[in-house]
Amino acid sequence: MVLLRRDGMSLQAQTSLFQSLLDQPFCRPFKIHKGDTFLVQGEIANQLFLVNNCDFSVSYLTPAGKRYIVNSQRGFTGVLGEMEVFRPEGRYVFSVTALNDANGYQISRTKLLEAVAQQPEMALHFLQLVTGRYEESIGHTLSNILYTLRFNIIRVMLNKSAEANDGWFEFKTDQHAGELGATTRAFRRVVKDLVDEGVVDKKRSTYRIAKLDALKNELDAG
After folding, report:
1. pLDDT band at 166 (very low <50, low <70, confident <90, very high)
2. Which of 175, 176, 169, 152 is closest to 210 using CA atoms?
3. Which of 23, 28, 194, 205 could serve as 200's disulfide partner, Cβ 3.0–4.6 Å?
4. How many alpha carbons fall within 13 Å on the CB side of residue 53?
5. Which pTM value belongs to this model?
6. Distance between CA atoms of 97 and 56, rounded to whole angstroms?
């Protein structure tokens, strides 16, 4: 059986790619400190990044100067910046900011292209990674377009609840509103409705599912 990551790439292929990159003589270690933005939106993508057990947020700065948190990861081990680094004069589309201290590695674009040209299996694994993440991104966008904000908030809450073994979980407005393409005002209004209806409990900044079946039935109804 092949285990799949959320990005659609098998764990075996992901592990193989990560390890083969670490084994390259031009893979340079660097220390990631909490608060460091090590991928900066708009800068030329001349480095591929590998991180180990890293918590980080992914943000996008609009032309109007508004920054949105579009994703976050906990304990992530893998590759970052692969989509941009393979494009000539590619620039990072998002910024990535560390939420903890972690270990990282850098590979220059020039050295990476040389290695990929000489190692077809590595090139194949990169194709799997890029296409898998592209499919995940399209699925995320379609979900935001096709379903209501309430539907998507319930979906995310149920996932967070499952990760917390049906206990209390953090649900940050700024982070998840950005991920779902909503304003914080609209997001808070929907969450308040869920609490007022008694299907979700709130304690300060944490939440707990109070009526699991009711929320699942609402998702099933579409």
Report:
1. confident
2. 169
3. 194
4. 4
5. 0.69
6. 5
- Note the pLDDT tens digit of each residue in 24-77: 999 999 999 999 999 999 999 999 999 999 999 899 898 988 888 888 888 889
In whole angstroms, give the CA distance from residue 112 to residue 191: 45
Strands 102-108 and 169-170: unpaired
Place of tokens 């850098």: 106
Q: Within 13 Å and on the Cβ side, how many CA atoms surround 8?
A: 15
CA-based nearest residue to 7, from 183, 138, 160 = 138
Report all structural domains of the chain as residue ranges with CATH numbers, in order of start. Answer: 26-122 (2.60.120.10), 147-221 (1.10.10.10)
Q: What pLDDT shows up at residue 1?
A: 25
The position carrying tokens 């906990």 is 74
Helices of type H across the chain? 11-22, 82-85, 109-118, 120-146, 149-163, 173-179, 184-196, 212-221
Radius of gyration of the chain from its Cα atoms, rounded to whole angstroms: 19
Chain position carrying tokens 């084994």? 23
